[in-house]
């Protein structure tokens, strides 16, 4: 005797099968944002949060020279501004002598090309997208995203400082034999620790950090200086998350969020890197746009007269109103909340955004900046905003639980299942 299955049961089974296929699908997530907004830190967090892609011992060791360079560059930046621009020196004469040694010290030059980057953005365009050849992209596809780079060239900006850094930048992919040769002088590490505690050095960082380029990780690494200067130092995960290295090209990472398989692409945020973004646009499920809340008082490294927050809002405008993303879900990360909370009471937001009237109220300041981003959403797309601290693993884990639901829900909507 045969079994009878009702039409409703068959429909339910088919729906369950479709749901299962949808869960097994790989979702393409694109990380966009201006330079130093925290995109690459988010990718690092994925390796920590999802064990299948965690950092190996060799990868941790490979970040050692990056940390060394971040520390020394930051110390040099503060001391040069203090002496040349402010005509100040350390309060303690002994610290002034140590500052001389710090300024004279250089880490052995090592140029490393990260193998985590795709070998060729153009070559992988068809694999990443819908098969549309790069040569067939229309001029209107790229005009708005390219606008910033064109401005740089028109204004004659030179990126000498950054190019110099790139030529001697050390990164997280390296032959082990070369890595063994790179160590930070314990004497200089102790000198930086001493100078960092000098009242005048602190005053420059507290009151004048808006006047010159200084990495957001400077305070973190200065406080860890003695540990970093120890023989046999190996960066921990927190060091890796704070380490700053200019991103070139396109970096991709695959990981699983429970049953959700994610293929995440991170592209360099500097203006010179934005021409590569367009090849990542096709077939994107979700765009995560990163903006650093703390950059409201900072200028671009590539263009000293351009406010970084204004540049970030302009970039968000170009991306969210692009015809490429009419059916894409948008997630906005307002990042670096820790630095933002520290800055607002000391450096008024109103100085850079005169129409803001919230004074030193951190919540009002954050809401105002969110409003500035949402105000350019002329396409009226649904945007899911989150306040984030990309260096805080617990915070990122909680945020990505919400992100996971957003990705899945929008994917199901796109397939007509919801």
Folded structure, characterized:
- This protein is of the alpha/beta class.
- It has helices at 7-24, 39-49, 57-62, 64-85, 93-104, 125-128, 139-154, 160-168, 176-179, 186-196, 199-207, 218-223, 225-228, 237-242, 308-320, 337-343, 362-374, 393-414; strands at residues 26-33, 250-257, 260-267, 286-292, 329-335, 383-387.
- α4 crosses α11 and α5 crosses α10.
- A 6-stranded mixed β-sheet has the order 2-3-1-4-5-6, with helices on both faces.
- α15 (308-320) links the parallel β4 (286-292) and β5 (329-335).
Write out key terms for the chains shown.
418 residues, six-stranded mixed β-sheet, alpha/beta, disordered N terminus, 46% helix, 18 helices, globular, single chain
Helix content: 40-55%
Write down the overall geometry: globular
Alpha plus pi helix count:
18
Number of β-strand runs: 6
Radius of gyration: 23 Å
The largest β sheet comes out as: 6 strands, mixed
Mean pLDDT value: 78
Q: Which band does the percent of strand residues land in?
A: 5-15%
Structural class: alpha/beta
Alpha-carbon distance between the two ends? 38 Å
* Helix and strand pattern: HEHHHHHHHHHHHHHEEEHEHHEH
Low-pLDDT segments: 1-5, 18-23, 112-146, 148-179
Walk across the major sheet and give the strand order: 2-3-1-4-5-6
């Amino acid at each position: 005797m045969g079994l009878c299955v009702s039409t409703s049961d068959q429909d339910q089974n088919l729906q369950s099968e479709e749901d299962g296929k949808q869960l097994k699908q790989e979702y393409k997530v694109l990380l966009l944002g201006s330079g130093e907004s925290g995109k690459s830190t988010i990718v690092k967090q994925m390796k920590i949060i999802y064990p299948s892609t965690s950092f190996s011992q060799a990868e941790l060791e490979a970040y050692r020279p990056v940390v060394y360079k971040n520390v020394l560059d930051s110390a040099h930046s503060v001391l040069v501004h203090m002496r040349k621009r402010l005509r100040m020196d350390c309060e303690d004469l002994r610290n002034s002598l140590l500052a001389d040694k710090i300024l004279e010290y250089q880490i052995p030059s090592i140029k490393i090309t990260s193998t985590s980057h795709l070998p060729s953005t153009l070559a992988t365009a068809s694999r990443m997208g819908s098969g549309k050849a790069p040569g067939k992209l229309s001029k209107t596809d790229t005009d708005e995203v390219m606008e910033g780079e064109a401005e740089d060239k028109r204004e004659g900006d030179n990126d000498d400082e950054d190019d110099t850094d790139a030529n001697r930048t050390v990164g997280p992919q390296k032959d082990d034999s070369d890595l063994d040769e790179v160590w930070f002088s314990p004497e200089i590490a102790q000198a930086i620790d001493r100078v960092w505690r000098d009242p005048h050095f602190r005053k420059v960082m507290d009151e004048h950090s808006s006047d010159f380029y200084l990495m957001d990780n400077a305070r973190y690494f200065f406080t860890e200086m003695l540990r970093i200067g120890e023989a046999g130092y190996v960066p921990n995960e927190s060091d890796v998350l704070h380490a700053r290295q200019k991103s070139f090209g396109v970096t991709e990472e695959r990981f699983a969020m429970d049953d959700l398989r994610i293929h995440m692409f991170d592209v360099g945020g500097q203006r010179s890197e934005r021409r590569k973004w367009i090849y990542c646009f096709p077939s994107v499920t979700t765009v995560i746009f990163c903006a650093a809340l703390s950059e409201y008082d900072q200028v671009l490294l590539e263009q000293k007269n351009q406010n970084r927050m204004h540049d970030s809002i302009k970039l968000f405008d170009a991306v969210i109103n692009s015809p490429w993303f009419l059916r894409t879900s948008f997630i906005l990360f307002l990042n670096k909340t820790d630095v933002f909370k520290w800055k607002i009471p000391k450096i008024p937001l109103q100085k850079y955004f005169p129409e803001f009237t919230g004074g030193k109220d951190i919540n009002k300041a954050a809401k105002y900046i969110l409003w500035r981003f949402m105000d350019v959403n002329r396409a009226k797309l649904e945007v899911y905003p989150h306040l984030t601290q990309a260096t805080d693993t617990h915070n990122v884990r909680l945020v990505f639980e919400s992100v996971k639901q957003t990705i899945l829900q929008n994917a199901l909507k796109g397939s007509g299942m919801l």
